Amino acid sequence: MRHILSTALLALACIALLLCSAPLVQAANLKQELASQSAIEQVLRRGVLRVGMSTFEPWAMKDKDGEFMGYEIDVANRLAQDMGVKLELVHTQWSGIIPALLTGKFDMIIGGMSIRPDRALKVNFSIPYNVTGMSLVAHRQKAQGFSKLQDFDKPGVVIAARTGTSAAQAAQKYLPKATLRLFDSEPQALQELLNGNAHAFVSTAPKPAFEAIAHKDKLFLPFSGTFTSEPNAIAVRKGDPDALNYLDSWIRAVQAEGWFAERYTYWFETRDWANRLP
Predict the structure, then answer these.
(1) CB 103: neighbour CB atoms within 10 A?
(2) Alpha carbons 47 and 36: distance in angstroms, whole number
(3) Which of 32, 76, 130, 257 could form an SS bridge with 51, CB 3.0 to 4.6 Å?
């Protein structure tokens, strides 16, 4: 009788152990499956990092040979190099760049994208690797006498900006009384200003300062500096903690080298690259 009871207790203990370990095994399998589906794992298997980007000077531009260059192009190239894979740049309209990421047209966005709550509802952001802000350049005749941001916040004042950008959002927030005209590209918005159909063009610094220098007969900077402060980060699809972990670690390591600061100085504080433009 005692032997039968011991055997039964042993059997019950084995069953309990199996029941307890099953969820752990399932969790381990799920964790492994999620890791295999990470954008980072897919990039390594493919041997190609596909980066979504759009053209913003000096973030990303085409040179005389039709090749992309700029701060974000350097960042994407450095990331691909450190991962040991090739880089494929996927040029995309800015207004559709997040939907394109979500549908899998590329692995991540490296395009001077500012971290914003509305964007964070759709994508996950890495830690910031750069901080920038908005500034504006004005038309000499139409904005004559304007010397501060508040001068542009009046009925009858026309502001040009690119659709879907932080510049457009900043103009709406800080210049609500002005009329905002949106365009699919920055050259179109800038041309509106050069044609005298707008009082100012809002964009990420230092673009407005560069345009004031390039068109000094028509344009001027009414005030120095930026009127917003915005952290830039890499955007990936939601539900991919391994990708975020890798990108955050990569950014911390590259920041410690001073590499981001060195490239920022070259692209944002000099025009040494201007002779490479068409």
Answers:
(1) 10
(2) 15
(3) 76
- The overall longest dimension of the chain from CA atoms, in Å, is 106
- Grade residue 57 by pLDDT with cuts at 50, 70 and 90: confident
User: Looking at the predicted structure, is the pLDDT value of residue 6 above 60?
Assistant: yes
Per the CB < 8 A criterion, the answer to whether 161 and 203 are in contact is: yes
pTM for the full model?
0.77
Element holding 200 (H helix, E strand):
strand 200-204
Q: What's the pLDDT at 235? A: 98
Place of tokens 């914003």: 116
pLDDT digits (tens, 9 = 90+) for 216-250: 999 999 998 899 999 999 999 999 999 999 999 99
**Helix or strand or coil: residue 90?**
strand
Looking from the CA of 130 toward its CB, the CA atoms found within 13 Å total: 25
Concatenate the DSSP letters of all residues of 60-88 into one string: BEE-TTS-EESHHHHHHHHHHHHHTSEEE
Instruction: Check residues 157 and 213 and name the one with the higher pLDDT.
Output: 157
Cβ atoms of residues 150 and 177 within 8 Å = no
